[in-house]
Amino acid sequence: MQGDRPNRHDGRVIEKMPVVTIDSMNLKNETLHDTTAEDSAAVRIRSSRYLRMNVSLGVLAIIAFVAALYLARDFIVPLLIGILASYTLTPLVTWLKACYVPRPLGAALVLGVILGGLFWIAYSLHDDAVAMIKNLPEATRKMRQNMSDTRGGPTALQNMREAAKQLEGAAADAGTKQGALVVAPLSQEPSSWLSDYLLALSTPMITVIGQSVIVLILTYFLLAAGAHFRRKLIGLVGPSITKQKEAVRILDEINVQIQLYLLTMLVSNVLIGVGTWLAFGAMGMEQAGIWGVISGVLSFVPYLGPASVAGASGIAAFLQFGSLLHALAVTGVSLLVTGIVGLVFMPWLQSKFAHVNMAVIFIALLFFGWLWGVWGVLLGAPLVAIIKVICDRVDSLKPIGTLLGR
């Protein structure tokens, strides 16, 4: 009996110990699984919160950036124009420096020649511009009359106005017969209308003149400084020779691409303006020089600029000649001049320059036009092209360049 007790005791111990150990292990495993699940849920919740927070902060940052661009437009627009002008004129100043002309003097000479040419063009076209402004009321009247004739006679509103004028005339005649004093209505002469129009434009003109002076001064200093800012930018990369060489290579590629784009656009637009001037003059269009200047300036706006010039010149030709055939001919010549210059320069430009998606350019025109008005429309396409060039040369920004490309 005594010999059996240890065996029973040992048996009980041997039978009971494994049960207790398994229960405790299962309890620990369940506790561990619960803790892991809770931790995973907490991590997912925190990740979701961080994601929402980052998205919200990103949206707020974009809104704040766009608001800053809008509020600071009086500063940013002249700054961008000055930078683009300096990039465009840098090759000329560099060429003068190679001819042993100091950069400050070369910058002054280049800007002086450009200003002299602009003043000469403005002086030569002054009479045409004044005549065009004076003819606007008459052109508007002719357009309304032609539209009325096209619709088949006067409208009901025009008939009511004519009847009212006849009643006023009859009342005036009756008053005259009774000895009443009749005061003739004042007629606004074209010269008076022109004076009022120029007076209304005086404040915007003063603003434009002030901004032009700022752009001129900024362009001169950027041209005279030369590679000063570039050396400072390379110095910010660090003391590593490899990084500095890579920065120099990237900056050289960006500078060459931007200068090539701006110079090509400038030359092509000048050719479009001169070609339009000569073609319209040969066709007998009035104020052909003004149309040439308008065509050259609006050619900076892709698609919309040439289309606007073609439509407006066609309307002007119809009002001048009174013939739909002449209007279509002038419109066709305007598009032909733009197309010829585009066929000569655009393939060469596209072979040297990065391709930009047409939809991206159109969206940029809408965005910058809404943001900065007319200046935004003119600057939209060059800014998008420059942004794509920079993104294509910087590794961290290449996805953006791919998104902007074709």
Explain what you see:
- Keywords: Membrane, Transmembrane, Transmembrane helix.
- One of its GO terms (cellular component) is membrane.
- The chain is mainly α and 406 residues long.
- Helices cover 86% and strands 0% of the residues.
- The chain has 15 helices and no strands.
- The protein has helices at 4-71, 73-98, 103-124, 126-151, 156-177, 190-200, 202-225, 228-235, 241-282, 288-298, 304-321, 324-352, 358-372, 374-393, 398-404.
- Helix 2 crosses helix 9 and helix 3 (103-124) packs antiparallel against helix 7.
- The longest helix has 68 residues, at 4-71.
- Residues 1-5, 7-20 and 177-191 have low confidence and may be disordered.
